[in-house]
Amino acid sequence: MMPLLSMDAGYCSKAVADMVNAANRGYLLALKNPQQELMREAKHHLGRRRRADAETSWEMYRGHRVRRLLYRTDQLRGANGWEHLRQVWRVRQETQDRVELRVEERYSLTNLPWGTTAGDIPLQLVRAHWGIENKGTWTMDTQWGEDHAPWTSGALEAVSLLRLLALNAVIRLRSRRFRSRINRQQRYNALLTCALELILTDQVCWGLGPDGG
User: Fold this and answer.
1) Vertex 151, ends 148 and 154: CA angle to 5°?
2) Nearest to 47 by CA among 88, 90, 104, 85
3) pTM above 0.85, yes or no
4) In tens digits, what is the pLDDT along the chain, a chain of 213 residues?
5) For the chain, which terminus, N or C, has the lower number of CB atoms within 10 Å?
């Protein structure tokens, strides 16, 4: 399978897809309502299908049972001038707790050839994408307010790299390997305060001692 770039709906445009495809890379673009015509066609071809092309077994995640089902079609090849578009995917995630079954539906566009994504490979790709969304991207967007306060109107590339460096530093601090047993239950804000003190004062703070923290 060709190298793949997985991107959220903010990057879902023909211009981006053209650029990625021209570089001989695969793309997996989250499809949402801003691409209205493609979204309408995707729902028309996939929205009512009940027989999945692939599915995962039920697994435990954060105290709930979760499974994912894949529905896909190649009937939108080249639609709307997307000459390189080969597949549209619909992934249904079902989450079962003691009270109810919650359902989440997501659609994606890809230029990956049909034969390279047999079985549950698409589900693995989508799960990996959601893992990134739920960890690093969610932290930067929601907790750090990146989407609402971009911090700069210039030097975007440099500031973005600095944000990623900061995120990686905090992730390392959050890991069990870099935090002592006594401090593993510290709240997230306390961790950020610790990181700030370390940067500003160059003093080692809690959880970073020689006892494995």
Assistant:
1) 120
2) 90
3) no
4) 678 998 888 789 999 999 999 999 999 999 988 899 999 999 999 999 999 999 999 999 778 899 999 999 999 999 999 999 999 999 999 999 888 999 999 999 999 999 888 777 888 887 776 666 555 565 666 666 665 555 555 666 777 777 777 777 777 766 654 556 666 666 767 777 777 776 677 665 655 444 444
5) N
The sign of the dihedral angle between the CA atoms of 27, 32, 33, 39 is positive
Cα–Cα dist 121/127, whole Å: 10
Residue 75 tokens read as 């009937």
Alpha-carbon separation of residue 122 from 4, 18, 70, 76, 204 (angstroms): 12, 21, 8, 17, 44
Measured CA to CA, the distance from residue 61 to residue 59 in angstroms comes to: 6
Kindly state the DSSP code that residue 25 receives in the 8-state scheme: -
| Distance in angstroms (rounded) separating the CA atoms of residues 92 and 106 | 7
151: left (phi over 0), alpha (psi -120 to 50) or beta: left
Give the C-alpha separation, 44 to 29, whole Å.
19
Distance CA(109)–CA(89), nearest Å, equals 6
Q: Half-sphere exposure of 150 toward its Cβ, with a 13 Å CA cutoff?
A: 9
Answer yes or no: are the C-beta atoms of 121 and 6 closer than 8 Å.
no
